[in-house]
Amino acid sequence: MKFILGSGSPRRLELLAQLGLTPDDVRPPDIDETPLKAELPRPYCARMAVEKVRAVKADPDDLVLCADTTVALGRRILGKPGDAGEAAEFLLAMSGRRHRVITAVAVRRGDRVWEKDVVTQVRMKAISDLELNFYLQTGEWRGKAGGYGIQGPAQAFIPWISGSFSAVVGLPLAETAGLLQAAGYPLFKEAP
Ligand SMILES: Cc1cn([C@H]2C[C@H](O)[C@@H](COP(=O)(O)OP(=O)(O)OP(=O)(O)O)O2)c(=O)[nH]c1=O
Fold it and tell me: Which ipTM value was assigned to this complex?
């Protein structure tokens, strides 16, 4: 059995390392991430994680893990911004409000798929023009859902969350450990 991380996200690799896990291989999936018409954020996020895990090629006994992180503002899905202008639009839309960050994790072994999604509420303070411009210049918004990373300088804008910090960064670690065990990965085997 090989353990394959189906993700190009450096955050997910780092988060797995916190559980003492190093994948045998890293195979980023390539899927169409366009939401369906009127698709709500949580089902969208779960669908993405499952589609990713099905798209990764692996041997029948291998264990594949994929995830998707989606920022939801009401019914609106905020994906990864295409440019600084879109990142600014996202950040201003979240400024002074609560939003949700959903991370879905999917594990596959052979034809079986296990999936779990975790919703975290995040409050962002009202961001000034100075703060916004500073943040955009850091480039931290690139490649991140909603255009911010809670693990970086954006923490200055986030006074409160309710849920899982690791899920917001990209992988809910307690739920990930549970799914891996359900799929038969010996995560907590005793030392010989
Ligand atoms: C909200 C938030 C998202 N993110 C990141 C995590 C994910 O990498 C990214 C969301 O995009 P995803 O589509 O979930 O993942 P990805 O495209 O980076 O990688 P892959 O599909 O290969 O697994 O946003 C943070 O790093 N910090 C945050 O606070």
Answer: 0.97
